[in-house]
Specification:
single chain, 137 residues, Archaeosine Trna-guanine Transglycosylase, Chain: A, domain 4
Length: 137
């Protein structure tokens, strides 16, 4: 099963560069069979730009997650704790096998009735398994 995650462009670039190896979330998917995440770059980009596999998901207090993941979080300590302000629990999705699409997908024309995910939503990965789908570096 796959998920479409909405991620800010500045963090998308850090994922593609390898600087960011953890994606942080206040809420996580209920399904535990998620193995691939498709990246919807929000803000001005508004395209599906690539994907990555889920290595594991860490669930803990934000303080503990920071201690484990800060080196490869791609986020400052201030931004991290601002994001998790008031949260008793947080999640860190460990990223592996990142793939950037040669040509980003415009979801508004490719997916009927597309609305950007607030955080995430489950998606039919068969859409992305087309033979003409090409990955970049």
């Amino acid at each position: 099963m796959s998920v479409l995650l909405s991620i800010k462009p500045k963090y998308v670039e850090k994922i593609f560069s390898g600087e960011k190896k953890y994606e942080f979330r206040r809420k996580i998917f209920r399904r535990r069979d998620i193995n691939r995440i498709y990246i919807y770059s929000n803000s001005n980009v508004k395209k599906i730009v690539g994907s990555f596999e889920v290595k594991r998901i860490i669930s803990d207090k934000p303080e503990n997650i920071w201690g484990i993941c800060h080196r490869y979080g791609g986020i400052s300590k201030n931004e991290f704790f601002k994001y998790f302000l008031g949260a008793k629990k947080g999640f860190a999705i460990e990223i592996k096998n990142v793939h950037k699409f040669y040509e980003p997908i415009d979801p508004y024309s490719a997916i009927e009735n597309f609305t950007p995910p607030q955080s995430f939503y489950y998606i039919d990965a068969s859409f992305f398994n087309k033979s003409d789908m090409k990955y970049g570096e």
